[in-house]
Structures are given as structure tokens and as C-alpha cells.
Amino acid sequence: NYTERHFYEKEWQKLVDNEEFVEKILKEIQNVCKNNGIERFETPQRIKIVTESWTPETGLVTDALKLKRKAIEQKYKDDIEDLYQDKKQTKKQTSTQNKNVFLYNSI
């Protein structure tokens, strides 16, 4: 398993709290965007990895596994605000210049 070989963590929560791991995932996302013609302003600059599975039982997706965007926005409202707030403080950019992404752990 890639994560066990490179990050020596078997527990998902410890792994997502590892800044090196999160940075590696972000760089991979950015490389995929760059290699597929995604504009820089469309490319994620910050991410938050969550450990909760998004299932119909958690109310974050439908039975057809379509995202329930309003439910996700409500549940992760503070995290989303933190991502934009951190970026404004560190880079002094507006939230519309770069998008953020949530990744999730599926079982």
C-alpha cells in the first residue's frame, strides 16, 4: 500500500493529520490539473482531507451516490471557511482566485 510505504501510518486519521501527506496529495492533484489543461485559477491551492465516509447513511450523498452539496457545505462550513481564511492571511488573495477541494475517505 502506497501510504504505508511512504508515510508509515496505518491509521487514516494520523495520516490525514500529516502535513507531508496532505502536501503530497495536493501536489498530485495539481499535477493532474496541469497535465489535463486545467487553468491555474481552477486548480486547487488548498485541500482538506476528511476521514468520514460519504454514504447515504451519513446524509452526504444520495442512494445513487450523487453529492448532496448543501449537506456537505453545511457539515463542513467551518472547515471551508478556515481554508479560505488561511489563504487570505498567508497569500492575501480573494477566495475567488483559487478553488479549494475536499477529499474524502471511502470505505
Quick recap of the structure?
The protein is mainly α and 107 residues long.
Number of helices, where a helix is a run of at least 4 consecutive DSSP H or I residues: 5
Instruction: Write the element-wise H/E pattern from the N-terminal end onward.
Output: HHHEHHE
Q: Radius of gyration, Cα only, in angstroms? A: 15 Å
Class from secondary-structure proportions:
mainly alpha
- Principal-axes shape call: globular
Number of strands: 2
Distance between the termini: 15 Å
Largest sheet: spatial strand order: 1-2
The helix fraction, in percent, is 40-55%
Percent strand: 5-15%
Uncertain runs are: 92-100
How many separate domains? 1
Q: Overall mean pLDDT score?
A: 81
Describe the largest sheet: 2 strands, parallel
Polypeptide structure, described:
It is a single chain. The protein contains 5 helices and 2 strands. It has 107 residues and is mainly alpha-helical. Helices cover 47% and strands 9% of the residues. The model is unreliable at 92-100 (pLDDT under 50). The chain has one domain. Strands 1-2 form a two-stranded parallel sheet. It starts with a helix and ends with a strand. The radius of gyration is 15 Å and the shape is globular.
Write the topology of this structure:
Layout: H1 2-7, H2 12-16, H3 19-35, E1 46-50, H4 69-75, H5 77-91, E2 100-104
Parallel strand pairs: 1-2
Features:
single chain, 107 residues, mainly alpha, globular
